[in-house]
Structure formats: C-alpha cells, structure tokens
Specification:
Strand 2 and strand 3 form a beta hairpin. The protein folds into 2 domains: 84 residues; 127 residues, Nucleotidyltransferase, domain 5. It starts with a helix and ends in a 12-residue tail after the last helix. The chain is globular. The protein is built from 7 helices and 6 strands. It has 253 residues and is an alpha/beta fold. 35% of the residues lie in helices and 18% in strands. Helix 1 crosses helix 2, helix 2 packs across helix 4 and helix 2 packs across helix 7.
C-alpha cells in the first residue's frame, strides 16, 4: 500500500472514532490530524525530529498547515488523552505481561539529577528505563496499560488487571503473585500451563519489531506516556485495519 494511501486510510479510521471535536481558532491542526501524527510517530519509531522531517519533506501535502516542530510537540501533549478512545473492550479472558523500555545506556545511569528511568532487568539484561504493563483481550487487542520505572516488580502493576475484576479473568505469570493478596480475577500460570497465554509474547514481539519500542528517546514523563499510549492505539488500529483474527483455541470458551 502506498504511504499516502495508508496515511489517508489511517486518518479516516481515527476521525471516525473521534467524531466532531471542537477546534480552537489558534490551532492549525484538527484533533484527528494530531492523533494521526501521534500514531504515525508510534509506527515509525525513532527520534521525534527525524519523524518530523520525514512528514515535512514527504507528506506535507497531507498536512498543509503543519506547524513547526516545537508546536507539534505541544500538540502531542495536549491531545494525548484522545488516545484512550482507541483502547479495546475487555473479553471474558485476558492476559497481562510487562515490557521493558530502555531510555539510556546503563553506563550513563545517574549522570544527571533529572534522570527518569531506573535500572532493572528486561529480557535477561540490565536496562535503565521504564517498564510498561499491557493488558490484552482474547483478540490480541490492548485493553489498558500502565507505566513505571524498570526497577519495579511485575506485581506492582496488578491494578491494571484488578480494575477489570468484574469484566474479565486475567492470566498472568508467577511474577504477578503477591503474598496475602489474591484477587479473584487473577490466574497465575505455571510453566506449561495455559500455553495460549503466549499470545502476549507475540504482541510484545511486535512492540519491538514493528514499533521499535525497545528503546525510546523521550526525556519527560508526559512524553513517555504519550509514546506508550500512541503505541497502544496504533496497535489496535493496525489490527482492525488488517482484520486480524488470531487462531487460538481458548478464544472460543
């Protein structure tokens, strides 16, 4: 699919979900255009200025009123709340797991007092960054997410699952266990049990391969939250765009 056609189709899907949103006189872009740019940034990956140059020199015709780079950054921060509209609905069974995101190299730890990330282990190696927990439904869509520093244990993100206690049963690995606190909707799976839970591993692998999310370059908490929210929205939109239907036996339960 040509890039211009893909961006146009993406914009139409986003605009259909957002519907009419008031545009203030001092704004040069509509909310649907800003969210489209955020989703494109999540898909493109890399640094924001490189993404801005790509849009400016290759697709300026699709965004004729594109403001300067710093103004687009502020628009991203102001409109990131709209990304929640693209999160999926819970199903009867769900899965939760965490994903480590590196912000800086471990050798650069504590170089500055404004450091956001902390040191933790991800995929068997040390990183300095954050950890995101993703709750996905039986269709592989992202229902909700949360973010914390990389030194947090997985069970620190249990609230993402327990918030949906009346709507879904959530399967987890043993890292989400917590002594003396056993919510009714959490099911810890030992090795070899409920192997269909590995759908979440496929989702997290796409985070790395498609969205290049293993390392990001944001230096503010709002920027990190915007990027993770845009990735979650982009993931769900791309699944719908491709009419993806995972073939897992337990989804029929």
């Amino acid at each position: 699919m040509p890039q211009d056609e893909f961006i146009t189709r993406l914009f139409c899907m986003i605009d259909e979900v957002l519907g009419p949103v008031k545009k203030y006189p001092d704004e040069s872009l509509y909310a649907s255009e800003v969210v489209t740019l955020m989703v494109l940034f999540a898909i493109k990956g890399g640094r924001f200025r490189a993404f801005y140059r790509w849009i400016y020199y290759n697709h300026r015709a699709l965004f004729p009123k594109l403001p300067d780079v710093t103004r687009v950054c502020r628009l991203f921060q102001a409109h990131q709340g709209y990304l929640e509209r693209f999160l999926a609905e819970p199903t009867m069974l769900s899965i939760i797991d965490t994903y480590g995101i590196e912000l800086i190299h471990p050798r650069r730890e504590d170089y500055t007092d404004s450091q956001i990330g902390r040191k933790g282990i991800s995929n068997g190696r040390w990183i300095v960054g954050v950890k995101a927990a993703f709750l996905i439904n039986s269709r592989g869509e992202i229902i909700d997410w949360a973010c914390g520093t990389a030194n947090l244990a997985d069970n620190a993100f249990r609230d993402v699952a327990t918030d949906y206690g009346d709507e879904t049963v959530v399967f987890t690995d043993n890292g989400f266990r917590k002594k003396g606190f056993d919510p009714a909707n959490l099911r810890s799976c030992n090795h070899g049990e409920w192997n269909d839970r590995y759908l979440v591993e496929r989702v997290l692998s796409w985070m790395t391969e498609v969205f290049s999310a293993k390392k990001i370059f944001h230096r503010t908490v709002d920027g990190i939250h915007m990027r993770i929210g845009a990735i979650a929205a982009a993931f769900n939109i791309l699944l719908k765009m491709n009419d993806y239907k995972p073939s897992m036996t337990w989804f029929a339960l």
